Amino acid sequence: xxxxxxxxxxxxxxxxxxxxxxxxxxxxxxxxxxxxxxxxxxxxxxxxxxxxxxxxxxxxxxxxxxxxxxxxxxxxxxxxxxxxxxxxxxxxxxxxxxxxxxxxxxxxxxxxxxxxxxxxxxxxxxxxxxxxxxxxxxxxxxxxxxxxxxxxxxxxxxxxxxxxxxxxxxxxxxxxxxxxxxxxxxxxxxxxxxxxxxxxxxxxxxxxxxxxxxxxxxxxxxxxxxxxxxxxxxxxxxxxxxxxxxxxxxxxxxxxxxxxxxxxxxxxxxxxxxxxxxxxxxxxxxxxxxxxxxxxxxxxxxxxxxxxxxxxxxxxxxxxxxxxxxxxxxxx
Amino acid sequence: xxxxxxxxxxxxxxxxxxxxxxxxxxxxxxxxxxxxxxxxxxxxxxxxxxxxxxxxxxxxxxxxxxxxxxxxxxxxxxxxxxxxxxxxxxxxxxxxxxxxxxxxxxxxxxxxxxxxxxxxxxxxxxxxxxxxxxxxxxxxxxxxxxxxxxxxxxxxxxxxxxxxxxxxxxxxxxxxxxxxxxxxxxxxxxxxxxxxxxxxxxxxxxxxxxxxxxxxxxxxxxxxxxxxxxxxxxxxxxxxxxxxxxxxxxxxxxxxxxxxxxxxxxxxxxxxxxxxxxxxxxxxxxxxxxxxxxxxxxxxxxxxxxxxxxxxxxxxxxxxxxxxxxxxxxxxxxxxxxxxxxxxxxxxxxxxxxxx
Lengths: 332, 356
Prior knowledge:
Helix content of chain B: 25-40%
Number of helices of chain A: 11
Oligomer: heterodimer
Largest sheet of chain B: 7 strands, mixed
Order of helices and strands of chain A: HHEHHHEHEEEHEHEHHH
Number of domains of chain A: 1
Strand order of the largest sheet of chain A: 1-2-3-7-6
Largest interface: A-B, 54 and 51 residues
Order of helices and strands of chain B: HEHEHEHEHHEHEHEEEEHEEHEHEHH
Largest sheet of chain A: 5 strands, parallel
CATH class of the largest domain in chain B: Alpha Beta
CATH topology of chain A: Rossmann fold
CATH architecture of the largest domain in chain B: 3-Layer(aba) Sandwich
Distance between the termini of chain B: 45 Å
Radius of gyration of chain B: 20 Å
Number of strands of chain A: 7
Structural class of chain B: alpha/beta
Mean pLDDT of chain B: 95
Helix content of chain A: 40-55%
Shape of chain A: globular
Shape of chain B: globular
């Protein structure tokens, strides 16, 4: 296997961190410690991890309402993320964004986005910046979106733009089979969304999104192509979300238990553990020490979020604009 | 010349100021050129902003030079990377412009007809306007958009709208409306240099009008209005092309001894509350003139501010002269009836002053 020891450790840490962040956040949300709606991505750890393993802080990603995994894969701090979900002043966006708008521009993370498909052209724009500045080799744009967004017009416009302008973009479709409760077999006109890539003149491949090694390899090719100035690629990552669309969604109303069990048998983290054990790439002792350290990280994140102060009410009026001469406060 | 002098084209600042009579369209293009020369992060995107490519050489033909030839010649100076023709996909390229602004560039987008803003509306509302706030001030969106509004040219219902009030409603966006060559030079430069997303809406009826433009570089502060004419009997509030209509009405009113003051708002978000109250405090009567439809519009907003902060100055109710609550009609007689005319303003002023 052509992956360094350090990278393997990073991959395992990242996938386990995503899993435990989502589980912890969901538990805290159901306890009432979060302040709003949260969408979990446990089960879908392999796509963001396998893709972002090739990226640096100079590369940009656009994300979705189900964005915690993208944030973690891009190196965001889990304490600041948890605090954001809790609405605290120490949160990644000072409590202004919440679960659906976590971002970190210093890490090349353009923000999770609450409008399905809306972040797709942002990643295209980041790639346009790279092209205009002549830094495609060190700054590509990756757009994460789901099977639901594959029906949005702006995806198609973005694919056409990226293709005609030959921009360094990776369209990463995380197909988890459901847009809210609507199955993709009902709402998507094609078996494989990636088949549409051909219509926009770019390579499109189907990837096993429960196998981080498969994702890593496919993403490596697509990103190398982008860095070489050869234009955009499309990856369709077939994956599965273990929980509902949002924290209070009951999947038993629209998914069969045997389907859920099947995908859990493909679990990306277990698959990784089996593979590295079989090939003697990582010891169980090492894997356990990573898990232990992530467990402690989650305890620390919850403690940090719980003990952090609420934002001052006066921040309500901050950062609507850089400069604005009219009052921001409402009329009372 | 200082900015404050340039802000006051009717005042003493113009005496001895070097400048020339120019067409709106020409100073618009010259300003784009100057801003692109000033800052290499500024680039332009839009449909047919050069227009056409040679199939063999792939070289741009500049066949259109932009809608209304607004950008003619710029592609030869700046090349196809910075004068970037787009496919017809407003949501896609406005979204890409937002992404580019978030990552360090200063894109300027030509949206052609103002009506097309609806096609890109989600990107403007959900991404351009909200990114700074919802990400806790981590980022900024130095994006400029411009498009042509207004009835009177036979472009019919889907190419003639003036609903800039929809944009002014959105926290995070700024909206400016030049009304002559002088103001478009200062407002366009200010918009491009501003770190927030700014939409410049220019009425099509202004494009071939001429006016005095100072030679020197200047910007007009966003959020400031100006006096186009001083008077004591009534304040006429104009914006975009209705500032021209208000000046015509003021001339007609002067013939019958009514001394009207004309304010040109220039900016709609933020907007100059002080100039409204200052003028109403003097004239005690006000008519707001807007080609936008009347419901939830800039005219209703200005009226609300005057009622709230200037009520004690008023001798008569705040009056509005606007288009009807209807789409823009095609037939030229219907279209002229749709638009606020100087005669409509004169009639309204006479009525409110009891000078029928």
